[in-house]
Design goal:
155 residues; mainly beta; Jelly Rolls; 4-stranded antiparallel β-sheet; 1 helix; 10% helix; globular
């Protein structure tokens, strides 16, 4: 009985200490032959409240085959009314000595990159974000996963 109570307490404390869950999130595996520049990863979600502000993250996972200290991404955001906005996101993944900024174990490194902070969506409806790699190497080797997370901005 004490073991069950302890297990339940541990599980509840882990979930409550992690903060809010993402409003939307998804990820895709990148083909192990490399991430080609024409291979766009697409993410969709619905915004119902335009008064709430959000933080938008791009999650990148790579292995030791990734030979660069940075990563350039093209992000195309399509609004519910059909209008588009393109941004280029430069991501610094390592310091000058080659030490990764991300976290991970072994040869897998995870990076959580802030794309938009405190962003207010202007209209309600379905949004789409397409992410394409913008590096000169094609295919880009070493990137294993690309993801998207939408979180409510903390007050």
């Amino acid at each position: 009985m004490i073991f069950r109570f302890g297990a339940v307490f541990l599980i509840l404390s882990v979930f409550t200490s992690c903060g809010d869950f993402p409003v939307a999130s998804d990820s895709y595996e990148v083909n192990n032959t490399g991430w080609y520049s024409e291979d766009t990863k697409s993410f969709e979600w619905t915004v119902e409240d335009t008064s709430t502000r959000h933080d938008i993250f791009v999650d990148v996972r790579h292995n030791q085959d990734y030979t660069f200290s940075n990563l350039y991404l093209f992000l195309d955001l399509t609004f519910p009314n059909g209008k588009n906005r393109r941004d280029t996101l430069g991501c610094t993944l390592a310091d000058a000595r080659g030490n990764w900024f991300g976290s991970g174990l072994g040869d897998i490194i995870d990076h959580n990159i802030l794309f938009k902070e405190n962003f207010e969506f202007p209209i309600e409806g379905r949004y789409n974000l397409r992410i394409t790699q913008g590096m000169r190497q094609d295919p880009l080797l070493g990137v294993t996963d690309i993801g998207f997370r939408l979180e409510t901005t903390p007050n």
